[in-house]
Amino acid sequence: MKWWQNLKKNPLARLGAVLLLIFYTVALFAEFVAPYDPYDSQLNGSLLPPTQIYLSTQDGRFIGPHVYPTTQGSVDANTGAREVIVDWQKPSAVGLFVKASPYKFLGVLPFDRHLFGTTGEGQINILGTDEQARDQFSRLVHGSRISLSIGLVGIAISFPLGLLIGGISGYFGSWIDSVLMRFAEVLMTIPGLYLLVALAAVLPPGLTSAQRFILIVLITSFISWASLARVIRGQALSIKQLEFVQAARAMGANPIYIIVRHVLPQTATYVIISATLAVPGFIVAESVLSLIGLGIQQPDPSWGNLLSLSTNASILVLQPWLVWPPAILIILTVLAFNLLGDGLRDALDPRSIQR
């Protein structure tokens, strides 16, 4: 496992892997990590700033981490600034593994606690609340499920398609190669983002977020397999000349069996690296579509539609805590996949494995 040793020696690849492990773990256990339901609104809690955590009461008594019930008051007509009303008489303790309300379920295992929360009337909104008085951190955690899964689902669709078409094209050659590659080249000339915007804009307005998610994945997968197919086709042209492939052909093996069993496995190194580097493209595509209102729709959260709040100038200026977290998470996720992909490319390089 020389390549694994090389990968572990790459600090940037390790950093990318650790970040992705954290993000996907949080997404998997979203009900446990998020302190509140992402769809629940707080009474008089619209656009609250991040909750301040105190250790001592107003009279100086140390009681440990706690918060106070906070609501929004009047809005300054000139500046747009909102008054924050704090009830200093009702401290609410902040703790770990707080009882969930209402009762939550995580997969087949019942979870009746959150990772952190409060006991009392006060609520902890570590990233504030949005214009609908929903906890921004909880929506960010639950939104990670869509934003992180779309890349994995996308490559699960596009890569088998690109592998099979590229393998068939390279193995058979002749007119099959010409037809398939000309079709792939046509797809490669289409600007992906503009096609996504055009197709998403004509979707029926009554589609649910789940239906839009599926359509976005299908559209992005359909236009992204062509470049992979061309590379696999080039590799298949050389692999089919190798002795073990010629032997399988001489023994009368089915061509499709030879392609799937002998030709395509030889491209595994490139496919693994390419898949890692392709995931960010799907994540960014979903984020851009949701940002401009053509992707996942409110009230369902995704990092893209949470970032759409940045189109509101007053929120961008007065409540920047609503905009920066989803933007930073998208950047970190894309960066982590690129770091891991670069590390895999270096670790799987035959020249580095031989050293």
List the helices and strands and how they pair.
Elements: H1 2-8, H2 11-28, H3 30-33, E1 54-56, E2 62-67, E3 70-75, E4 82-86, E5 92-106, E6 109-119, H4 136-172, H5 174-188, H6 192-201, H7 209-239, H8 243-250, H9 255-263, H10 268-291, H11 303-307, H12 313-318, H13 324-347, H14 350-354
Antiparallel strand pairs: 1-2, 2-5, 3-4, 5-6
Helix pairs in contact: 1-13, 2-4, 2-13, 4-5, 4-7, 4-9, 4-10, 5-7, 6-7, 7-10, 8-9, 10-13
Number of helical stretches of at least 4 residues: 14
What is the structural class? alpha+beta
Low-confidence parts: 105-109
> What spatial form do the alpha-carbon principal axes imply?
elongated
CATH architecture of the largest domain: Orthogonal Bundle
